[in-house]
Amino acid sequence: MARGDSDDIKARFSAVYPLGWFPIGDAVRDCVETGSAWAFARMWDFLTFVKLQARLKTTTGPFLDLYALDFFGTRVRRRPGQLDDGFRTIVADEIIRERATRSGLSKAVADCSGRPVVVWEPFHGGDCGGYDMATLGYDEAGRWGSIDHPRQIFLDIVQPVGEGIKHSGGFDTPPGAMDVAPLMHGNERLLTGPITRADIQNAVLASKPAGVTVWIDIGSPPVRGDQLDNSFTLDESALPGGYGL
């Protein structure tokens, strides 16, 4: 017998009956008592559940989504397939997130995209470097700064990617033949992933300082080292750097 279950409720009923009202084992009393105990036990279960939903640490399912909606509107949403624990962590972080600072903005975008973020300001000498210093070098370090552009921030963000469409082909291609090879209806989200550019922009708007313009560049990861160009011929040209197959 656990607190609040049917047996517990029945025992509480029996404890408050006036002496002599009902004989022990009375069928009519037992019937009414059992039915009432079942109803009150369900009410106890419901109250216990409601109590759990009143706190972020214990709320679950759609009530956790309502919790986020109440605090942030539609800006913070559960990602497809995301479990309660992961989404609860995101909601808790958003409630106490540092905002209106450079470090807070950088962390907000990195948490949203899951990818590295480079933050620089043209008015900030530490970001742009200077001549005759190790902080400036063509295609290596430093950027063109300007004191004519205060209160502006540039964000270089790596585009989040999806898992791709694996082992499946499209219509009219050998991998996608009917009853022969894998075929599936794909969608753009498989390529872009659950994080969209709108999600990143919303994260910036929610964390940037007032009166500051933020320029956003969302692109592919930078390619380091030698690259192939249109002069490369498969199975004929050697790979850059002297490597061959």
SSE order in H/E notation?
HHHHHEHEHHE
What characteristic shape results from the CA principal axes?
elongated
Q: What's the alpha carbon Rg, rounded to whole Å? A: 31 Å
**What structural category arises from helix and sheet content?**
mainly alpha
Mean pLDDT: 81
Q: Could you tell me how far the N terminus lies from the C terminus, measured between alpha carbons in angstroms?
A: 74 Å
Described by strand count, sense and barrel closure, the largest sheet is: 3 strands, mixed
Number of strand segments:
3
Characterization of this structure:
The longest helix is centred in the N-terminal third of the chain and has 27 residues. It is elongated and about 100 Å long. The protein has a three-stranded mixed β-sheet, covered by helices on one side. 7% of the residues are buried. It is 38% helix and 7% strand. Among the domains are: 48 residues; 87 residues, no CATH class. The chain is mainly alpha-helical and 245 residues long. The model has no long low-confidence stretch (mean pLDDT 81). The chain has eight helices and three strands. Helix 1 packs across helix 2 and helix 5 runs antiparallel to helix 8.
Layout of SSEs?
Blueprint: H1 6-16, H2 27-53, H3 61-72, H4 84-95, H5 102-113, E1 117-120, H6 125-128, E2 152-158, H7 188-192, H8 197-207, E3 213-219
Parallel strand pairs: 2-3
Antiparallel strand pairs: 1-2
Short description:
With about 240 residues, the chain is mainly alpha-helical.
Write out key terms for the chains shown.
245 residues, mainly alpha, 3-stranded mixed sheet, 8 helices, 3 strands, 7% strand, elongated
